[in-house]
């Protein structure tokens, strides 16, 4: 297995963020065309937009919180020689948790479901962090 395989879930995560931006553009365009945007407040205030736009906007913000740790961990694991099939599998699971989280967030937005999925992603990151720590520690000596 090539250590570079760790970057496929990273690229997939980036594509997810791009897809969310496309969805945001679509929802904003639709809302603006339907006259459901407060034009005076739209440049500075999220509440100028309808809820379905704010949902996507909030989801995008979430993609720049916990996933940033994922990006860093993948590079630490790659640089320290810690990439294994288990690590790559955990990376794909993290990405899958983000896809499901985004789907719920921009869809029915049921917070308890979203929280469980978010927690699963954090647990996966905790496991990756421990593996990264062992990998870095092992590469020292």
Notes on the protein architecture:
This protein has about 140 residues and is mainly alpha-helical. The protein has one domain: Membrane associated eicosanoid/glutathione metabolism-like domain (Four Helix Bundle (Hemerythrin (Met), subunit A)), CATH 1.20.120.550. It contains 5 helices and no strands. The protein has helices at about 5-35, 50-60, 65-80, 85-105, 110-140. It is elongated.
- Oligomeric state as shown: single chain
Order of helical and strand elements: HHHHH
Please state roughly what percent of the residues sit in beta strands, choosing from under 5%, 5-15%, 15-25%, 25-35%, 35-45% or over 45%: under 5%
What's the shape?
elongated
Which ranges are low-confidence, i.e. pLDDT below 50, for 5 or more consecutive residues?
none
Question: What would you say the CATH architecture is?
Answer: Up-down Bundle
The whole-angstrom Rg is: 18 Å
Please summarize what this structure is.
The chain has 141 residues and is mostly helical. It is built from five helices and no strands.
Keywords:
mainly alpha, 141 residues, Four Helix Bundle (Hemerythrin (Met), subunit A)
Write the layout of secondary structure elements.
Layout: H1 7-33, H2 51-62, H3 66-79, H4 85-106, H5 111-140
Helix pairs in contact: 1-2, 1-4, 3-4, 3-5, 4-5
């Amino acid at each position: 297995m090539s250590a570079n395989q760790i970057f496929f879930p990273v690229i997939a995560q980036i594509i997810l963020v791009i897809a969310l931006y496309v969805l945001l553009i679509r929802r904003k365009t639709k809302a603006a065309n339907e006259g459901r945007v407060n034009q005076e407040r739209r440049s500075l205030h999220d509440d100028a937009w309808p809820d379905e736009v704010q949902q996507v906007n909030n989801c995008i913000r979430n993609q720049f919180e916990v996933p940033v740790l994922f990006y860093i961990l993948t590079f630490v694991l790659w640089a320290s020689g810690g990439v294994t099939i288990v690590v790559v599998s955990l990376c794909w699971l993290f990405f899958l948790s983000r896809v499901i989280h985004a789907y719920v967030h921009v869809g029915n937005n049921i917070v308890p479901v979203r929280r469980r999925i978010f927690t699963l992603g954090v647990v996966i990151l905790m496991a990756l962090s421990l593996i990264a720590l062992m990998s870095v520690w092992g590469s020292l000596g």
